[in-house]
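Collaboration report, partner site 2.

Our partner group contributed sequences for two proteins of shared interest, and the home lab folded both. The records are reproduced in the order in which they were received, starting with the first partner submission.
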Amino acid sequence: MGIDLTPAMRQYLEIKNQHRDCILLCRMGDFYETFFEDAAIAARELNITLTTRNKNREDAVPLAGFPYHAASSYVGKLIAKGYKVAICEQMEDPKTAKGVVKREVVRIITPGLPVGAENILTADNVFLAAIDPGEKSASCGAAFLDLSTGEFYLAAALDLESLLAQLAGLNFRELLLREEVTGAEHINSLLPAAEFILANYLPAEYFSFTAAIDRLGDFSPVEEIKALDLARYPAAARAAGALIRYVQETQKTSLSHINRFRWYERDGYLILDDTAKRNLELFSSIIGGTPEGSLLHLLDETVTAMGKRMLRRWLNHPLRDAIRINERLQAVTDLKENHILRGNLRQILKGIYDLERLAARIAMQSASGRDLVALRDSLGQLPEIKSLLAGLSPPLIVYALSQIDVMEDTADLLAQAITAAPPPTIGEGATIKEGFDAELDLLLALVKDGFSGIAALEDRERRRTGISSLKVGFNNVFGYYIEISKARPFTLPPDYVRKQTLVNAERYINQELKEYEEKVLNARERIKEREQEVFFKLRADVAGQIPRIQGTAQSIALLDVLASLAEVAWKHNYCRPLVDNSLALEIEEGRHPVVERMPLAEGFVPNGLNMDGDNERFLVITGPNMAGKSTYIRQVALAVIMAQMGGFVPARGARIGVVDRIFTRLGAADNLSRGQSTFMVEMIEVASILKNATSKSLIILDEVGRGTGTFDGIAIAWAVAEYIHDARHLQSRTLFATHYHQLIELAITKRGVRNYNIAVRETGEGIIFLRKILPGGTNRSYGIHVARLAGLPEDAINRAREILENMEKRELDEAGQPAIARRKKIKKEGQLSIFDEV
């Protein structure tokens, strides 16, 4: 490198060479430091000062750092931007080290593996995923893990397209692939809908089936591994093995909170692909992509982190089993009707911390004294919850209460062991209570006795010397000392030895003070060591209770979600739907849950729906732009989702025949990066619907065919409608909103088609939107009226009317072609228009 490096810098570069893909944070005293290229990155990304070591010299080394106690926030910012961070700690006491302090990387934090306070995504699941594309015609597989909660899933499918559809909606932040799967373009095609930040390519040996089975067996009983039947799904097993090895190598600690492997299946759940989730704005608004304006934001009245994650899972995977749905609905009903009880429950739940993530930190030996206090305080709330809900009878609530383990033994242990307000880091203050450990108590007594002995010594020395201003003090550099003012000369005892000279005083030490100093300082140092020993053993004992903590956390999350749905239902006047296995979709005075909360000048106008799955299963909905067609069809889909996740719906009454999938084709979007126009995207989405929908599906279509020419568009829209209605594998319940009023003629020949329109009132000034859906179709379009409302110039509006009139009269020009552009004769001077008649 051409730079004269210190031993510490040589040590740094040796460690950095082993972690080239990471930003290396090197602990140096009270700071984490970065050097060279890492320093430039850290300074830029964290907005901290970039300075140099050996400033003003040719061998100056770029340097940037921050205090170790603030590391979590800085590391969180780095991983949020896609960086991997290696934490390099001092492995010996600098005071006793000979030469350069020994340092080692103790953990690598990555975008997919945040555990502690660096997890700036708060309550959301953050997944690390591994994908094995399979071999030849064999199925492909995936595994994904939220290290902060211990949730570990496997998935398998016949092809990548099916696998990725199965994993739609998961928050992947990091991806593991085999080295031979290369190229950014391939990654984009592999996971077009994923939002992962970082891709890692691992050697093929990581994806070994035999090694995978052995690694899985280290975390779960042999019988449970056999039950997974991994021999049938080797790609999923290989992905799981690669993921576990990667986590073990980066975390370098116990992972005992990962104790259960589950198949991630969508059987039994209402399937929502990424298109449906985006179009229906389940998790973020289409405009801006923010949580505000989404259904989740409206429904989220949870008060615990576990509850927030579970609510998101419920919305991501509504149920398809009417029995399970009604179990949830009954629990929500009881909590909604017991308003005071629900309020008390939610107040207690607010006192419960994130038990899942506390368990993970305890298992991974990164939990602090404050984490154990959070666990202790959380456990203290559990008996009150069980007592409060003891009188409720819904089976789901009874089950949740039965699974809550109050863990009296662990709660009592923590109450006896941990002080009320421990410091953030062990060794920086009192963490272990007096009376818990005899050896620690003895050391504390020695320090107290030492302090009282020093006070007595100060009094004796004042009497012995006759110097009333004499005092005994202490500082970290010189230790204990006797300080005497220089104001006037004193005769000092012969055993006083000068230790330090100040401007106005002299500091001395004698043999008795030296003995006290050694006794107290040694005791203080031993207190830190003993407190660490006691704390680490205590944490290990609590780690043995991880399964109990995790089971209780799931029950608390369940109660929180049920209470949240009940709170929303009470607050917004939702009704309990009747959910069954019929093909009916009946909604009385339904509303759009998000739109109705907006400040609308005219207020929200409710609308009903009555589909029987037979004679009335395909609704053609016509009417002008801005009248409310899109809002109406979306609110029907949202009512189905809310009902099947176990919640009440925004309506006066509702009957929901269980839906297996919801398909949407809404709005206009292109994908230029893949060479796909708006119309191509539209046709791809429609093709997927016609291929995958069933008679139990709900299809929401808005303006199919509008991306191409008028006649092509009408032809495509008509053909798609006929196909859905007639195809034996389809015949799905469908809401088809369109401007092509010609489609109302479908109702003449198709038994299951019914026409509806959004009512408008025509006035001399234009039209007024009534927002009400009525039986029957409209035989005209109101596009020109809407254009006028939008502010098009009056000349353009008048010309549009002329052209429309010509088209409707089917007037022909001299060549026998439709005279779309014919203009009335206007006497004028100057250059002739190309549209003027000859």
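Second partner submission, folded after the first:
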Amino acid sequence: MALATAAIAACLPATAQIPLNLQGVNTRTPPQYTASNLGKRVIIRGVVNAPAFHFPTYTWLTIDDGSYGAVLQLPGRTTQLDNHHPGDHIEAEGTVDMQAGMVVVIPERLTPLGQKRPTALLEVQVRDLMGPRYLGRLVVAEGRVVETGATTAGPYMLVDAPDGPYRVFMPSPVAVPTLTLGDFRKGDRVQLRGVALQYCPQPPYNRWYEMLIANPEDILGIERNSIVPPLALLAATGVIVAIGLILWRRERRLRTQRERLRKTYQLGEEILSSSSAEAMLERIGDALAAILGVTRVQLFIYNRAAKTLDQVVAEGSEGVSISLSAPPGGTQAGAVACFHYRTLLVIPDISRSPFPMAEDHGANAPKSVLFVPMMAQGEVAGVLEMDQNDRARDFTADEQALAQHLGNQIGVALRLLDQRSVQEQLFRTEKLAAVGRLISGVVNELQAPLSSISDLANRALERAHNGPAERDVAAIALEAQKAAQLVARLVSFAAAEQEARPVCVSTLLHNLIEFREGDWKASGIRVRDLASQDHLYVLGSQGQLEQVFLNLLVHAEQSLAEAPQKVITVRTSILAKRLLVEIVYSTSPGSQKPEETAAVLGVTRSVIAGHGGEVRLVEKVNTEPRFEVELPMTSSRERTPAAAPVNATARDHARRMTALVIEPEETAQRQLLALLSARGYRVVPVGNADTGLELAHRMRFDAAFCSVHAPGLNWVELSERMHSRVGEFILLSDGYDPELSADFESENRFVLPKPVQEPELDRVLRQLDPPGPAQVVPIVKNGAA
């Protein structure tokens, strides 16, 4: 290329030459980074900074002006440039060209301008040489050797750099395979002195920078990478083996702990679905033998009425009841102490126990015991006892933590068993009510045709008097009369369920207080009965009103668990022919659970609304919270058929439909709560997806509304895990896409935009399949709903 350029320049007329500084010569144009002045005739000046470098096909001479450098190139292995030595100030007239990515000037004339002081070495970092800034300049840098080798063009060395290895090259005009850059090994630290240049045969020309050196003395060793002595290598190997053994044992211990933790949590999930306490004990006994290595597990449940710890045993066996006030000796004393202290009790050696346990003798006497209090909603539901009969042992902190977690799971499972028992009773009640409604509808339809059959039979009997068909017609008339009487009795039976009667609220409240008073005294709860002694009547259902007031009293009782002063006040008053019942209870800060309160109000509100009244929770600053139930009064003799309310369909739907609302935004939650309550739904609002999933596992919801921004579990996984627990899943989304909504709803799920609009909500509610009896789990406390 250089020869062709020189030949063309010789044939063409002389053109104007451009004076350029060395910075201008090195200017490049992206994206290929070719020389901006490529092919132009220029005049440059500079001081020679290194001897000429000879390559097999060309020769280079480098100059710089104190700030930038440049390269002069002549073709072939010429010695013309050898006449110029470091310090010579020269002027070059020639053409700008490129050689393997490096900008060069092919001189046509070189003019000496005198002598100057040789250029001083410029100290730079290796990473600074990975660019065009110092091309053509004499530099010095330090780095660690990565690789050494040789090519036909000369030996090379690679040193480490942030963007990849940097190449150091010593060119040779002839092939000398045995030529090296010195006895350097990988890892040695060296000092490099040479000219920063570039060798990049392919565009773009912004890579593959290198340093040219004149002889091997330009590479100076600074730090040698010494060979590790055999003794040190042996010691290092021993240390590595020891560390590996320690890590292996640690990993094995952690793996064992993880496996134990996984089995414990799996056991906790399994016992939540146990059908009875006996089945729970059997499952725990089998699992803990493998998890903790204990030989026996015993379960004691707190009997609030008898003030005892009742042992759970297999069916057909007889368990013991431990008195909490006068416990016997042996391990039973430890169980009572654990219950009273509400904390774990570890006895590594029963012979040295501070409790009177030395009375336990025999083959089944334990040598070590761990007592675990089973906590549920802040109360001790019982005690879990783990015995070690074959040896004395001290339970570790991890084992104690696992045991406490398992004990809490058992406590929750026992509470769920009580709730399921009450739930089954509620289901049976709802089924009986459904049967009554079915009977009422059927018999009403049968009355008219039976009456017609009876009339027609009587007329036929008059015409067939003394005729051959008289006996048959008489039999028809008799059977029709019997059927009509049977239908009349069924009508009267069904009407009893649908007919409203006067209910004495005063007597009802006194009976409920008397019913719960024993448990309240056992829990330290004092009741103030300020209900009027006069007979105050309302028109409605005795059973429904009893259930409403019992739910409110039980919720008040549960709220007193952590209160310093446990007092429940029941008060009645009359305001403008309306009866007001107040249930006031003391509580401690933070003990109120809004989701439980909302669930209680959701269950009771529809019943009270069906009686023409309303129920509300009043919470004010510096006052005790209270439930207020307001009902219209009636006289003791009044009895009117229960008229269907204006929104009969919605109210009947409310008795059967329960909705879960998972919405962290208070405004959106209140709006959806109001819309669903107006349509007669029982509504349970929560603020995060984890709480909603927990409630879905405890009760059956007909519909679940979930915001896409609900914290906790993401809504996709929540929808999958709730699939079998809720009737329908409705996603509340800010960005509403109709096509996405159609795809989602094809899977029996729905999408509603926020804020929720009533027409859209009604569209979704109309597509919900009407369920059977309401699957509502009431709040349970001490076995009472």
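Feedback sent to the partner group on the second submission included the following. DSSP finds 16 helices and 34 strands in the chain. The chain has a mean pLDDT of 79.
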